Amino acid sequence: MERLIRRAGLEEIHRKVLAGERLSFEEGVRLYGTPELTAVGYLANLVRERRHGDRAYWVRNQHINYTNICNKDCSFCSFYAKKGGPAPYTLSVDQIREKVRQYREIPITEIHMVGGINPRLPYQYYLDIVRAIKEERPQAHLKAYTMIELEEIHRVSGKSLEDVLEDLKAAGVESMPGGGAEILSARLHQELFKRKLDFEGWLRMARAAHRAGLRSNATMLYGHIESAEERVEHLLRLRELQDETGGFVTFIPLAFDPKGTELSHLPNTTGVEDLRAIAVARLMLDNFEHIKAFWVMITPPVAQTALWYGADDLDGTIQEYEITHVGTESNRQVLTHGQLLGLIEEAGRVPVERDTLYNVVEMAA
Ligand code: V47
To answer: Dihedrals φ, ψ of 290, to 5°?
Structure first.
């Protein structure tokens, strides 16, 4: 390994990783640039094992998307309703209740709820669906609404952002997912998602949520038109906010799936890119406890391998996922807990069932 690290020119980064020192922007770019993925993975695995040993976390969860109507028109998205695409829908409070009841028999500990930005939805709707979920399944942790939705909920509320956050918490929101960050960059905002909150706004919302006591995740959408420098800048912007608030729980790199988007001419990411995104994140985000390999996006085989490239979490059993459909046409994208455990054990790690905030639910025997 020493030889490989030398060949990759990563000796100084190796020294810093062993000493627990913070890596710089230039070093992040170097980690993206070196062809020696194994060396990058080795370094990331040192950090991963220092923090989590052999543990690999997973969660029994359910995703709910309450509407696919969206006015943001992001060119990387295939989820929102448009001509020739998916038909528009908005779930009623009763339909949401029904979705929760559908998986009553499964011991789910987390419900992850997000949706498009449907400007017709009133403030009360956002509170009502949260209350309905908590009534149906009070024991499940509700992780709901991205920073983009928070901005919209604030817009329709006529209240201060602080009051909105208090209302959401009182209704039953317990943490927030990491979506909507895309790439925290002014150039990419202009190119790909200019109707959406810009990167300063996303960070402002996250800061306000953390100050209100809501923890959240952070994502990065990679594999489209962003450069290595822009990816590293994204990571550093998250690291800086995490230094300030400590409110982020997990970082999740999301591999861009071009199918059905305005960027459908672009190729899918490769396993090498996916593993590198995980490894570089593990090395740069020294103040994030967890790095998640989201199997829905990068496929179970790559996610399983990522447990040796910096990831300590595979996310969950899922049930249904509508935002993307890698290798399937169906919304039903599910791994049973047996399949998840099998993937983790085959990779040589120890599966640990967790809840949203990484409290251990049950250790495998
Ligand atoms: O913000 C949209 C991304 C995100 C595509 O917090 C796409 O635990 C790839 O944030 N190809 C939503 N990605 C999903 C998300 C998430 C997922 C799992 C766990 C957590 C968590 C959060 O999906 C969006 C956007 O960045 N997305 N379109 C696409 N074509």
So the answer is: -130, 145
Q: Find all residues with CB under 8 Å of 94, minimum gap 6, and list them.
A: none
Predicted local distance difference test score (pLDDT) of residue 137: 97
| Nearest in space to 51 (alpha carbons), one of 311, 342, 300, 330 | 311
pLDDT value at residue 364: 47
Q: Are 219 and 181 in contact (CB under 8 A)?
A: yes
* CA angle, residues 226, 191, 228, in degrees to nearest 5: 10
- In 3D space, the residue among 59, 62, 90 whose CA is nearest the CA of residue 320 turns out to be 62
Tell me which residues of the chain have a pLDDT lower than 70. 363-365
- Distances, alpha carbon 62 to alpha carbons 122, 123, 277, in Å: 25, 24, 25
Q: Is 179 near ligand 1, meaning CB less than 6 Å away?
A: yes
**How far is Cα 305 from Cα 333, in angstroms, rounded to an integer?**
20
The pair of structure tokens assigned to 81 is 């309703």
What is the CA(254)–ligand 1 centre distance, in A?
6
327 Cβ contact list (under 8 Å, min separation 6)? 299
Q: Rounded distance, CA 32 to CA 25, Å?
A: 11
Residue of minimum CA distance from atom 8 in ligand 1 = 177
Which residues, other chains included, contact 105 with Cβ-Cβ below 8 Å and sequence gap of 6+?
A: none
